[in-house]
Amino acid sequence: MSEWPKPVVVLSRCLELEPVRYNGQVIPYDFVRELEPWVTFVPVCPELEIGLGVPRAPIRIVEVDGQARLWQPETDRDVTAEMREFADGYLAGLSEVDGFILKNRSPSCGISDVKLYQGRDPSAMTKRGPGFFGGRVLDLYQGLAIEDEGRLRNFRIREHFLTKLFCLARFRILKASATMRDLIGFHSDHKFLLMAYHQQQLRVLGRIVANSDRAPLQRVVEEYERNLRAALASAPRSTSVINVLQHVSGYFSKQLSRSEKAFFQSWLEKYRNGRIPVSALTSILRAWVVRFAQEYLLTQTFFDPYPEVLSSVSDSGKGREV
Length: 322
Ligand code: SF4
Fold this sequence. Notes:
Layout: E1 8-12, H1 30-35, E2 40-44, H2 46-49, E3 60-64, E4 67-72, E5 77-78, H3 80-92, E6 99-102, E7 114-118, E8 125-129, H4 132-140, E9 145-148, H5 155-176, H6 180-189, H7 191-197, H8 199-210, H9 217-231, H10 238-249, H11 258-272, H12 278-291, H13 295-298
Parallel strand pairs: 1-2, 1-6, 3-7, 6-9
Antiparallel strand pairs: 3-4, 4-5, 7-8
Helix pairs in contact: 3-4, 6-8, 7-8, 7-10, 8-9, 10-12, 11-12
Bound molecules: iron/sulfur cluster (SF4).
């Protein structure tokens, strides 16, 4: 376990941790328990932080004169200013963070799909968007691994989130004492992963580490980080992942039997159809890497982007878009 970086993840406190919801409940969420040994959680409940107790009357987002307000109907209290002040102060004070897991559909924590009511009439819901705290997270930490608990119940979204989270944590740790050699090593170890994510950005990142105009290290690292985040912005298309899987399997084409190749192809089909996670295929490839002593491939994070114990095909079955 010690070889893994420990990502820092801000977590909505009502997810598995504490009964801080408006109704005094906690949301059961196994993924938090599974992640706990591997990450450092930073729990936060914005509604508690602004002084709304537990239990409390629910709040909602209403649009008044074209402005979104955070309003508690039962008390007719407007907590917009308090929430904005808290969100800005809290988020500005985070020193190291790689990702966020936030409660979905909450007017505070939600990052999308939060109801926005037109005026104070509860039947006049017309739009959906981010909550007040979740929206600020998106504004200030764009590029980090940010998801809500609802979307993370889809295994493809979870795969992308974990891959990005651990990659960003590896880079954050490297950045603290980076040498040019470390950066080149990082780029080399992530070649296939980045190829699966974004071929064009892989080339951009390659040019940055080549540093042909001899820019100072600090500038090179900053530019690399910016472009790394761009490369990881969206989940890879399954066709790109399949291309990389096929490309890597080509390293063993002379050594594998016909039935081994057919078996691999049949599992590629299962992945293409969304029936298995990519880790099922990378495990096969990793076994071949060891068996045929392909040293260069052994260090590729594509085979091992995050701790294997976190791989799971459990899924909400809702087929959300990645
Ligand atoms: S969704 Fe956010 S604000 Fe609401 S209870 Fe959970 S942590 Fe607190």
